[in-house]
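User: My collaborator sent over this chain with a note saying "see what the structure looks like." That's all I know about it. Can you take a look?
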Amino acid sequence: MDRRNFIAGCLGLPLLAPAGGAQAQAGLSKMIFPFAAGAGGDTLCRLIAQEMAPALQRTIVVENRTGGDGLIGIKAVKGASPDGSMVLVTTGPTMYLLPMVETTPSFDTAKDFMPVSLLARFEFAVVTDPAIDAADFKGFVAWLKAHPDKASFGVPSNGTIPHFMGSRLEKDLGIPLTRVPYRGSTPILSDIIGGHISFGIVTLADALPQHRAKGVKIIAASSAERSPFAPDVATLKESGIDLVADAWYGMWLPAGSPPDFASKLGAAASAALAKPEVKEKLTAIGLIPVGSNAEGLTKELAANTAFWQPIVKATGYKIEN
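Assistant: Without extra context I'll predict from the sequence alone. Here is the result:
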């Protein structure tokens, strides 16, 4: 299978260069984000790096290392010295889905990394063509059953949460669905508008501009509760589908890093995310600031792993490596 990016990511812009070499818990830290330029991750990385640097009394350089569904950046941090000089910020799905779908897992999240903090959440949406005669998700399901030849949907890439959401919907609805992988959300939205596919599963933030312009229609959100960004849109659970599928960004250090530094790092990240000006900038692009600690991140990862493992396994999807 071809490898593709799981989520649009972040272009790291460096701050000032450090004076002197990197030392344990002092000097320079590199914040590695394993994806290319993109809105949400880019803004998140820049904001927290700028806010955390003074609190930690060190220079933080945000660096994107792309490739291999995030593996290039993940492996860089996995193999880094555990001295606080390198930290990983990535999406939750990269840390729990990649080990599930690789034929030979490249990393073990629990053994190779030290959890630091949950950072921010984002949501997914089921999006359709407004021309389809369906006022809501239930109406759209009825339309699909009446038009089985048009039951094709787009996902930003194979091996992603939208991919496996589609597999779960296919099972729950009892309707054969044809998945069409794309490179990101933009071409999916374009093809929905053009009538080439019936629906798509993309991040809610990506769909909102076209939804508000009535180019596409968001008919369901994947969150546990109605999204603050689209309170008029019902959730899948409200629509009779027992599925909650949001995603999030988290922060990790290499295994063996000093626990006290991990605690300071997590506290600095949470403090940055609690600032009103940071919250305002993140919510403006569809991210929900969270902030937690190592325990919170570990629990979130474990819950997501337990939920998605049987769904992913049932699909038989694998990435050859």
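A starting point for your reply to your collaborator: Residues 294-315 form the longest helix (22 residues).
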